[in-house]
Amino acid sequence: MKKIKTVKDLKNYREDIMKEDSKFNKIITVCGGTGCHAYGCQLIKQKFQQELKKLNLLDKVALKFTGCRGFCEKGPIVTILPKNIFYQRVQESDVPEIIKETILREKIVKRLLYEDPISKERIVHMEEIPFYKFQNRLLLGQNGFIEPDRIQDYIAEGGYSALAKALRLSGENIIEIIKKSGLRGRGGAGFPTGRKWESCRQAKGEIKYIICNCDEGDPGAYMDRSLLEGNPHSVIEGMIIGAFAIGAKEGYIYVRHEYPLACKNAQIAIEQAREFGFLGKNILGSGFDFDIKVAKGGGAFVCGESTALIASLEGRIGEPRDKQHLHTTESGLWDRPTNLNNVETWANVPLIINKGAEWFYRIGTEKSKGTKIFSLVGRVKNTGLVEVPMGITLREIIFDIGGGLSNGKKFKAVQTGGPSGGCLPADSLDLEVDYEQLTDAGSMMGSGGMIVMDETTCMVDLAKYFLNFLKEESCGKCLPCREGIKRMLEILTDITEGRGTKKSLSLLEELATVVADTSLCGLGKSAPNPVLSTLRYFRDEYESHIRDKKCPAGVCAPLLRYEILADCCKGCGVCLKTCPYNAISGKPKQIHVINQDICAKCGSCRAVCKFEAIQLS
Q: For residues 312 and 617, what is the distance between their CA atoms, to the nearest angstrom?
């Protein structure tokens, strides 16, 4: 393969790829995302290869190992193109049948189809499944057609055509397009992308840097990982365009080392882009030079903050610095102007250049434009990645796309924005998802984690869980974050263990406000959100823990009491044998008793009792 040196070369090469691909009358795609890897998708891919080879179908049927398809709950996922037939939870043993029936006989394997939980009807086509039907998959959609380690697939889908178009514009023109589109940073703060680029372009200094932030550490969040795994070239193309607009010659993709597949695919994509002439010297004959390196982070949550990330990239401890007076666009990596955006932000850039600022601006709300990817997890039927237009309601995401709660329980809350986000109650379900409305409600957009909770969730315990996470992840540089989070956690622990007092809540609120107002970086400033939002919407639960020494959700073990009902106990002895703490006594066929001084409230006795003789009070 010769390097693509001109726009004409790119156009001709794309036509050649499409001509070559047209010889296949069907395409089998196997989801190769991390979630499906856990289900054994590699074995399924190998089985397809073996069967196609055995039947001499390799020249008629293409097999693609694609990126994440989003519907992780139903993996491993296999689709048959061009009809977009969707098969879920496919096993190795299903492969011969799929080839025999669907590939050779044009028949559907009904048992592998998605079943609508309400109508019980089997749905054949992917786009008709409610999980996908209500999405707008501008970024994730290409994951179903592209093998992430094959640049030809990306080019066939129009890849690098936005770069060719951008290189014919001036840097100022590109920045103006991004500004008019209304694109805001998808990393959490929502700062206008065009303004950030403009600031970096205007900053003094000949050497400037571009950074892609893929240090995604929120519990339950994997949007950036899946996008970089499944379509790394879209991120690379966006970075090249951004670098050209700003005037940077060198870029970095900062990925946490816990994302091995994302690191691998990003490195392969960079090498391929370099080989084809999209990275390196004189890109597409424009005279512009730019290259990218992959840098692995150590897994510190605080390194998601821009200045801490830069410190880590420089080989120093990942600690943030005060940027109120000196922004990273003026003094970032090695004290030089640096532009940092996250994976999703960069991936949006080629779409905007190709389709226009006006097209992107029409999607979303007045102040929040485009789509947003969320990881929808927790007590919801359809878990996975969803990409929706800004302005969609929480209700539409959770019930139309997510299918409602998974266990028939009552909806209680949804947390947006990761561990530093807020918990919103049922009254907020009709809230439109955009930066301002979520912030006003006491939460935040964050990078895109969305955790659904039902009535079995204790909101005090939940706040304690996230504060414990943030305490461990705090770098400890500033006192408000280092000591304030620790003290808030101590107060919450007292409340959940029955030691809370009337003064606990006022002290907790005051401390949370101080931490938010005085912490150095975004981690500390947003750390009180789980506490403040649960106090705002679920104060009655806090009061019940303090006043009545009761946990309404039945979660906080020190406030629980397991008792054996005398009129129900048969004296079978199963609970006695099961108890790991020897807290139960009693003779065969006689009523058993729980020693409350020994009982650890683990619930194992209640789980094994067939007579429902053990109650939780």
A: 50
3-state SS class at 2: coil
Provide the residue count of the chain.
617
**Rounded CA separation 45/41 (Å):** 6
The pLDDT of residue 2 is above 90: no
- Contact (Cβ atoms closer than 8 angstroms) between residue 519 and residue 527: yes
Q: Say whether 86 sits in a helix, a strand or coil.
A: strand
What's the CA gap between 468 and 303, in Å, rounded?
Answer: 18
Nearest to 214 by CA among 141, 294, 104, 136: 294
Distance between CA atoms of residues 5 and 8, nearest Å: 8
CB-based contacts of 258, cutoff 8 Å, min separation 6: 299
Residues 6+ apart with CB under 8 A from 96: 51
Distance (Å, whole) CA 216 – CA 420: 13
Q: How confident is the model over 571-582, as pLDDT tens digits?
A: 999 999 999 999
For 303-324, how does the pLDDT look when each residue is reduced to its tens digit (9 = 90+)? Answer: 888 999 999 999 999 888 876 6
Token pair of 219 as six digits: 């519990």
Q: Exposed, middle or buried by CB within 10 Å (0-12, 13-18, 19+), for 3?
A: middle
Q: Distance (Å, rounded) from C-alpha 309 to C-alpha 270?
A: 21
**Alpha carbon distance 181, 178 (integer Å):** 5
Backbone angles phi, psi at 294, to 5 degrees: -95, 130
CA atoms of 537 and 459, how far apart (whole Å): 10
Its pTM stands at 0.92
Token pair belonging to 199: 């600031």
Under a CB-based contact definition with an 8 Å cutoff, are residues 299 and 19 in contact? no
549: left (phi over 0), alpha (psi -120 to 50) or beta: left
Contact indicator for 40, 75 with CB cutoff of 8 Å:
no
CA-nearest of 48, 53, 30 to 94 is: 48
pLDDT digits (tens, 9 = 90+) for 512-567: 999 999 998 888 888 899 999 999 999 999 999 999 999 999 889 888 889 999 99
What is the rounded distance in angstroms from the CA atom of residue 589 to the CA atom of residue 550?
Answer: 33
* CB 447 within 8 Å of CB 223: yes
Chain segment 193-218, per-residue pLDDT in tens? 999 999 999 999 999 999 999 998 88
Q: Apex CA 228: angle with CA 216 and CA 41, to 5°?
A: 105
